[in-house]
Amino acid sequence: MTGRYGERNRMDRTESQVVVVGAGPVGMTAAALLAARGVPVTVFERNTTTSDEPKAISLDDESLRVYQSAGLADRILRVIVPGTGTRYYDASGAPVFQARSPRPFRLGYPFKNPFAQQDLERELFAHLAAHPLVTMRMATEVRDIGLVPDGVVVSYASAAEPDDGVRAVHTPYVLGCDGGKSIVRRTLGVGMTGRSHPEPWLVVDVLDDHHNERYGMHHADPARPHVIIPGRGGRCRYEFLLHPGEGTPESGPDFELVRRLLEPFRTITPEQIERAIIYRFNALVADQWHQDRAFLLGDAAHMMPPFAGQGLNSGIRDAANLCWKLADVLGGRLDPVALDTYERERRGHAEATVRLSERLGRVVMSTNRRFALRRDAYLAAALRDADARSFYEEMRYRPPHVYESGLIAPRCDDTVGPTGVMLGQPRTFDTSRGRTMLLDEVVGTGWALLGIGVSPEDLAEAAHLVDAVEPTAVLVSIDDRLPSGGTECLVDVDGGLDAEFAPYRGQFVLVRPDHFVAAVWTRRQPPALDALHVTAFDDRRPALVAG
User: Most exposed of 230, 252, 283, 366 (fewest Cβ within 10 Å)?
Assistant: First the structure.
């Protein structure tokens, strides 16, 4: 076959069911999630190694839970600082408030955790390189992708085979995780909507630093807005808004600029600088996140300013949403139309997060002194009110990660508990194992059916309704009670289990593999499974698919 650029392509065979383009954190996270669910994956990366440069700087508890489901939590936890949020300072340098989780450890992990991207990539790569279902193709540049009726043809050239020309591989699905300049997005002809911010920022990652705080620091000094984020082992990131004439992305920073801006905080030598670069931030969202069997994730789908710390975390959410659906489609449990819900579920939250990142930048990083003084006066007055203080300190301004459509059943008339929300991961005592565990360790990484304060017989009947998705069925006892007859169940140990499931008392909760609540019902009113488009995938049981 002949590719877009006229080279003669040689078609390879592959056992992989998914090709991931890009071995950055999002691409390797997607590959790890797919491999954990038994899906053979090939990863193409044009660079010869993973990145040696710090880029992303913070992982949320939600992202750490994703790594838990991929079997990677222990690896990732050893490269993070278990963080406590972000502290904001006013124009004079005085602390105003510290934003942190309203319910620490609700998802099973610390809330906001600084890290160095090169450390994360090293751990991800080591995991994938040793995985029998993953093929890592470094120094391999994707030149083109072609959509065909039964999959995608990926054309590529490998530095390891320099005389072999352009080759091609046919695969059922392709994930474009190849960044803001995504070749996958470009070859699909997909544009991006939004804006690029003209203000240049200097980002400096340094060694041997004295900062040891477990929180990021946003200094809203209109003379020079700046951010300080301490890391592990003496690493620290400094970010400074540049004044006109100080530098551009095209010119790059010189050592004298770095030395001068760091002088109020520390002395610096060239050897102590890991990276110094000048950025302009983008706020862009792809007009379309997938075509047929090709999908965009991470920066290929959305780019945002860093002020909310959500760029990488948003890409990890993309992978968490899409990869279990791909695995269930390939495994015959979901109809392929379920994949249409990826963009439907993720776009709204990603767009809202981009807007929040821009808004935080305008408010916190303003260079208008008059505005900054009005902002500080408003916050000083507002924070005297307990509700307003909770709004800011508990970050209620962040967009809720909730799905109102997609693979979500309509609410039954007599239910109370919400659907489309992420279920927490409280600690629980599992009477069948005789030990305290996190919830995900009990129910596993697939579908789960939880009976909250119901009888074992009712749970068995409910499980039969949804056996298409082969859920792990578990009784949850709340209100300091146990079911009669010594039935094995989960019981509360610290108040977390009771708090999480109080809205679902006396109900059945069907939880998707990404921990979102798909359906809630009672014994009196079974769920409308036809609204979830359950169809037969063999002679024995139906499959849950999207509408």
Answer: 252
Please answer whether residues 423 and 442 qualify as being in contact, where contact means their C-beta atoms are separated by less than 8 angstroms: no
**CB burial string 178-211: b at 16+ within 10 A, e below:** bbeebbbbebbebebebeebebbbbbbbbeebeb
Q: Are 237 and 258 in contact (CB under 8 A)?
A: no
Which amino acid is present at 336?
P
Distance CA 44, CA 469 (A): 32
Express the helix, strand and coil content of the chain in percent, nearest 5 each.
30, 25, 40
Asked if 170 contacts 156 with a C-beta cutoff of 8 angstroms, the reply is no
Instruction: Note the pLDDT tens digit of each residue in 182-229.
Output: 999 999 999 999 999 999 999 999 999 999 999 999 999 999 999 999
CB 200 within 8 A of CB 249: yes
Q: What is the pLDDT of residue 457?
A: 92
Residue 177's Cα: distance from chain center in Å?
13
Q: Which of 372, 389, 24, 13 is nearest to 179 (CA)?
A: 24
pLDDT score at 478:
86
> Between β-strands 427-430 and 435-438, what pairing exists: parallel, antiparallel or unpaired?
antiparallel
Nearest to 460 by CA among 479, 447, 473, 472: 473
DSSP 431-472: TTTTEEEEHHHHH-SS-EEEEES--HHHHHHHHHHTGGG-PE
Cβ neighbours of residue 75 closer than 8 Å, sequence gap 6 or more:
67, 123, 124, 126, 127
* pLDDT confidence of residue 530: 57
Work out whether the CA dihedral 281, 285, 287, 290 comes out positive or negative: positive
Residue whose token pair is 């530095």: 159
